[in-house]
Amino acid sequence: FKLPQTDGSAGEFLKTDGSGALSFAPPTGTPGTILQTVYNSTTDEGGTTSSSYQNWSNLATNITPLSSTSHLWIWINAVRLNVQQDGNEGRLRVTDGTNSTVHYRCFNYDSDNNYQSFNPCLNWYWPQTHTAGTQITLTPQLLSTNGSGNVIWGDNGDESYMIVQEIAR
Questions:
Q1: Residue 1: Cβ-neighbour burial (10 angstroms; 0-12, 13-18, 19+)
Q2: Residue 122: which of 96, 87, 155, 160 has the closest Cα?
Q3: What are the two backbone dihedrals, phi and then psi, of residue 84, each rounded to the nearest 5 degrees?
């Protein structure tokens, strides 16, 4: 066997060419294979009255992709989501600081001007690719469409989770 002259990058493995020469390569996996799973949890809540997206930093999750062609599957299991005021909509998405997932819309159709409560289990299949070996931070964000009613995600004292899987493609 002929070993490579230099060390590989984080997450790479040795592969052979069938003639004894070894080299480093990123894992590719069969399409649909789960390459890794990471998660974060928080017992803090996030909230906003802003009509611009605000970070729920306590639930931000780091992942270092193993492949540059993989996609991500993201789940957020929040204890609760409250949208205050009639006609107000809470919009929720996840960002890597450069790109964002599509948003979910939770609308308060109530007529008593109180909170409309949801118990969301949201998920995104995100085809955005990232550079293998470079850590990214995925941060949930939320906004209040009317810019004055509270949108609250999570619950102080009870855990909310963000789970991220890297999927080979």
A1: exposed
A2: 160
A3: -90, 150
**Span 82-101, pLDDT tens digits:** 898 888 999 999 999 999 99
Q: How confident is the model at residue 27 (pLDDT cuts 50, 70, 90)?
A: low
Write the Ramachandran bin of 32: left for phi over 0, alpha for psi from -120 to 50, otherwise beta.
left
The four Cα atoms 111, 148, 152, 44 give a dihedral, to 10 degrees, of -150
157: left (phi over 0), alpha (psi -120 to 50) or beta: left
- Shortest CA distance to 117 belongs to which of 154, 153, 82, 78? 82
Determine the 3-state secondary structure of 59 from DSSP.
helix
Whole-model pTM: value is 0.82
